[in-house]
Write a structure and sequence with these properties.
Elements (H helix, E strand, L loop, with lengths): L2 E6 L6 H6 L2 E4 L2 E4 L2 E4 L6 H7 L7 E3 L3 H11 L5 E6 L7 H9 L6 E6 L4 H16 L4 H12 L3 E5 L4 H5 L5 H10 L2 E7 L2 E8 L2 H16 L5 E7 L3 H14 L3 E7 L2 H7 L4 E7 L1
Parallel strand pairs: 1-2, 1-6, 6-7, 11-12
Antiparallel strand pairs: 3-4, 3-5, 8-9, 8-13, 9-10, 11-13
Length: 279
């Protein structure tokens, strides 16, 4: 059985890696006024962060069911099955779109997987699925492995500026004003598929240290982990952080990724995150 692996753009797996590992991608979009840009196709993260400095905050949209159907039908000419891994169903309808489309196509078995998370932490599932698919593993075996990974996946995000969360309706104006005055850097995480506050921390430095401590609680076992530093246009800071973390945790393999246009719309420039999973 030949199995394809599909993800959406919010896993932010670089194009060359997707091509090397035969990973297919369906994009979400950002909408500035009447202009729609498919992320990772029409607009890069850097272009997006430059654009939002001069324009009103965009809205975001998921792929249509029709786009999923078209892609699944195309994959059906070459594959017997597709593992379709997507951004948390609690914050986007993308996963449900894959489910609906999967019930509409013939000639290919669709296995939708709700990552219950986003960004490169979602990408960990995708990379594992691609590795197993290349080895010829059956879809059920791949899905079982993804469910097993879910037990050890962790991710924490620090928002530098509360205004995007407030403007996007994720935070009340009063909370945003109070947060700004107190320099609160909310530490966020995914719980029951939703982004919720984990802790309120007063400074950026303390928030990042708290994330490192949380990694340490898991990594102290000495078991091998994969981890990704995720940034919103803070590459220099991410590189420095990676060097510091590698010196502390030799059993953790670190990479650097980013918050792209869709996630960046809600979190804003300057956000930082760290996610990890047992190898």
């Amino acid at each position: 059985m030949k199995t394809a692996v599909l993800t959406d753009s919010t896993s932010y797996i670089p194009k060359e890696i997707r091509e090397n590992l035969n990973i297919h991608m369906i994009p979400l979009s950002v909408i500035f006024g009447n202009e729609t840009y498919k992320e990772e196709v029409d607009i890069t993260a850097d272009q997006f962060y430059e654009e939002v400095k001069h324009r009103q905050l965009p809205t975001t949209s998921q792929p249509s069911v029709g786009e999923f159907v078209e892609l699944f039908e195309k994959l059906a000419t070459e594959y017997d099955a597709v593992i379709s891994i997507h951004i948390s169903s609690g914050i986007s309808g993308t996963f449900q779109g894959a489910v609906s489309a999967g019930n509409m196509v013939e000639g290919i078995e669709v296995y939708p997987f709700d990552s219950e998370i986003s960004c490169m932490v979602q990408g960990f599932y995708v990379l594992k699925a691609a590795e197993m698919a290349a080895e010829g593993k059956a879809p059920d075996e791949i899905m079982a492995q993804l469910d097993e990974m879910k037990k050890s996946i962790r991710a924490y995000f620090m928002v530098d500026d509360l205004s995007n969360l407030q403007r996007g309706g994720r935070l009340s104006s009063a909370q945003a004003i109070i947060g700004s005055l107190l320099q609160v850097k909310p530490l966020l995480h995914f719980e029951n598929k939703l982004i919720v506050p984990f802790e309120k921390i007063r400074t950026r430095k303390k928030a990042m240290k708290r994330i490192v401590d949380l990694l340490g609680e898991d990594a102290k076992s000495g078991e091998p982990f994969l981890a990704s530093i995720i940034h919103a246009k803070r590459e220099d800071e991410a590189i420095k952080w990676k060097e510091e973390l590698e010196a502390i945790y030799p059993n953790v393999e670190f990479s650097i990724s980013y918050f792209g246009p869709v996630t960046g719309t809600h979190l804003g420039e300057g956000s930082m995150g760290l996610g990890w999973v047992k190898k």
